[in-house]
């Protein structure tokens, strides 16, 4: 063969390894402007075969560009919104007393859904929402911090559960995730990754938000993509609720400027209204006095509103008030004052978040894209939270560790409630009331107080019954197939070569037409399970276990056998919307059939083994970035190490040694800190004097301090703590030394039980978010000398 011909044939063959994937082509084939849709059975699509010609000389060859992948013609933008910890009776759209005009607007332009459900807990709902599979199928039977080594509970969205982000991105969408990410395992949150379980690894090209279940809104543990950012250092009045909307608007403008015809998928999930409740002062002032009538009167008002709006049936009965929560008219004047304040700040947080969501929607409108955008707005990822204890708290990390804060102490923070010096949560009684007309709250999967969410969606020209109400029974797993039907995209069979689990949700698009109000529900069966509380819905009936203990007891009470020790209830939802009339005693055969159906569904969706433990799961062994390590050595300055990657000081003895070089004139600044204003510790020099401060969740501070400033030169500063276990939260003895000489010593009666911080980090040589003691210093508290080495040694846990 002629050499020129042979080389040309060889060169051409190098560009023909894969079959063409194009389905619908636009533009001249092979031109730089050509586009195509793909069938999407395998994602990402294989590159198409080279369609040009290659000879030895470029002037004798024909170039050819692979077409750009685009979504099917007419595929809409998608704005998927979900707030946090808000039950059915919260928003004005569903009868609540808190104005939510943005949600009202979406409902007026589209539909309200009155039987839409979550899983009863945050990260499980989120995993189900973005995968279209049940939360156990997606590995999130519980939150990541309580994961166990079973497929339904390992808190890993595996590669066989491709997300809606991955699907839409590979079909040509611009994908973004703004707000809360509670779907990354704690051991993978550091800069070392791996990032397959971060938003970027789940199909989202852009991420602006925080990691974990909650965040301080004033100084959040905030990321842009993989990098920590600190916007409040330049903006002293920064609040994430507004900052997130600002960033979303900026992102939408940039995408529109660069590629105005490229559709976007934005997953917008603010931390509001999860504790800590952090609205701005201006929003709090709007609600002054609005809750002075109390929680019982508010329930009656909400139910009346719901019936007037038609979002509950006219015969809906208000479920009984629980015996273990006080009625409003039995409270003292101080109690009423403090409890009303709690609700004012929560309501402000709800309204503030809705307003900022409205700014994002308004940006879509300004770009002329509202008619081409499917908006889905879910109020709450579960029912309203009961994690504030029966009386509320100024410091929510204390509350979730079962440390109560008397009302008399809360009143000291009355004026500061919600500002940067507090991390407040409200009384369970408000949470129960905001779930009107149902029983129970967040964490309880057996009853609609934990799982019924107000949801509205709009898409002009496609959802044609403007302002309509739909009562078909649906679940968060139904959102993904709804989006897929709207976009004309099918669920892939493989993603990155891995066979996919079937999508377990059903599309809700059949409800969109004017004549669809009375169409039977496409979802006929749905199970629910969380912490052993469980339910099964089937064709208008629901069987529910009776919660053996209230969620605000944090799992500390004695629980029955999870399989055989639970009582069951039975409700006919076609006649009893609120789960008021228990028919278990009258319909034993029906109940037995439903119980058997639950077991069938549980086996199908990785719900087994059942587990009703709370604390033991939180402290159980799991993959860890620090497992087996007893010594941690750092040098120089380090900022932002996640708590899960840092030395653990809980329920154990530990020693922190800082080898420092103090400059002439004395040294100042942080040597090592974990946490901050709302819990943690700090070892630092203050005007040259060594200090160790232990902050017990904002409730109490213990301080060791030397009386003499360190001279210039090298020194060894040591804090040694001896824990007096066994058990969590016990006390111990701390000794602060300099160059081998003790300078301060004291014993403390208790320590933090289970959780130091969720939204601060471990820092060396600097403090980046909030101080462990505001009276000593302000951040950033950078060490002015040289930190040659910091060593932390930890003993075995004493539990």
UniProtKB/TrEMBL annotation:
Which InterPro entries is this protein grouped with? Alkaline_phosphatase_core_sf, Sulfatase, Sulfatase_CS, Sulfatase_N
Keywords from UniProt, A to Z, are: Calcium, Hydrolase, Metal-binding, Signal
Segment forming the signal sequence: 1-22
Where does the Sulfatase N-terminal domain start and stop, copy by copy? 76-489
Top-level taxon in the UniProt lineage: Bacteria
Matching entries from SUPFAM superfamilies are given as: Alkaline phosphatase-like (SSF53649)
One Pfam entry name: Sulfatase
Record's family? Answer: Belongs to the sulfatase family.
Q: What is this protein called?
A: Arylsulfatase
* Lineage of origin: Bacteria, Pseudomonadati, Pseudomonadota, Alphaproteobacteria, Hyphomicrobiales
